Structure prediction request, 80 residues.
Amino acid sequence: MVKSRISSKGQITLPKRVREVLGLGLGEEVVFEIRGAEVLLKPWRKVPLEALRGRLKSEVPFPGEAEERRVREGAWAREK
Prediction:
């Protein structure tokens, strides 16, 4: 069990062990899920759009998808 104290401003510090287990780094966000008299703390991870590709059943590209890919690839090539 790991514990922390609530400050006068209602804030807590996440102990190092909790941050390590959840893989949390500086500036990352967490969410609190209230379950009756308990609260579950979870990392808030945004899923990159590319990770969702192929999950829709339609094979029709989204409007502007080809142009977006061309611009993104051009920007990536300029960074090299």
